[in-house]
Design goal:
This protein has 2 domains: 195 residues, Rossmann fold; 146 residues, 3-Layer(aba) Sandwich (Rossmann fold). It is built from 11 helices and 15 strands. The protein has a 7-stranded mixed beta sheet, sandwiched between helices. A 4-stranded parallel beta sheet has the order 9-10-8-13, with helices on both faces. The model has no long low-confidence stretch (mean pLDDT 90).
Length: 379
Amino acid sequence: MIKKVAILANGGDVPGLNPVIRAIKKVAEQNGIECYGYIDGYRGLVENNYVRLDNSDVSSGILQKGGSIIGSSTNTIIFNYKVVNPDGTVEYKDLSDMCIENIKNAGFDCIFTLGGDSTQKSARDLFVKGVNVIGVPKTIDNDVACTDITFGYNTAVSVASDALDRLHTTAETHHRIMCLEVMGRFAGWIALESAIAGGADVALIPEIPYDINKAADAIKRRIADGKNFSIVVVSEGAIPKEGEASTYKADIDNGTGIAMKFSGAGEKVAKQLQELTGLEARCTTLGYMQRGGTPSAYDRVLSTKYGAKAMEYAMEGKFGILTVIKNGKLNCVSLEDVVGNNKKLGAVEGGTEDSNVKLVTLDDELLKTAKNIGICFGD
């Protein structure tokens, strides 16, 4: 019998986190179950820092709010946690046993982990060590394995589509190429769907290494047809043929090496297209605009469905799972299936070559639709 549960959010914020939290809390209240939230994700688990959510003003009126009322943590791996010693030296320690002890002492019967690939990797590892865990898929990139869609993604696509609508007017007025760089490190879902919704002429995604000359040729054909402007969408992880993605070394070290951040793909493409086509080109990088602010109505409903179903599974005693949507219906899969071949317990996080992320495939109907209406992918 579940009597007391806790929620943690991990990774970058997305619209829909609060509706998930609200749904879990509301189902808990309906069934006399205490509900708490760990502050700042896995960091809160380490610091044993949590707040009560049920029958509390803390979680009132949050359906329409972006972000997370309980915060979130990034680059936080409890199996390889950064510890600063009194003498100022830094070392990385496995604090998972301490976290498990914190959970037991608090009396939590289940931990809900709201996050993407890395978050669910740690959730799987906790489950292996005896913690009752249920994951809820969250990522802007829509690349969590085993589910049709993640919450927050619809809002990001809507923001990107609105940006493309606005860029169209400037592009047409000034006879320019307007490039929009959107999120998507390894998966091009945002670029692909927003390109269709926003009427883009070119879309460059990580799954299809692009030839910039072919993208330029597509724009030249438009010029020959009397259309002296073009719209280009670029995933931040877009990769040129015989080249590499645009990255830089971030000032972040999670114990497995300096993290690489994606940046500059859009600017690079804009500069090259200007040189190749003769049209003036400009780039707009949406960045955090995509993941901030009010969730769309779709994401509010999707998040509520995810949260309510996750709590339902907890009451049924189903743990070590990820709540998913398959073929439009709520379901669950084992966290083992979600992590794929990334089985090593502990220090290895998500986002590795063995991770089971969901990518755009060449036979995907969305990609076929885009190509059928003439969107060029530089291939």
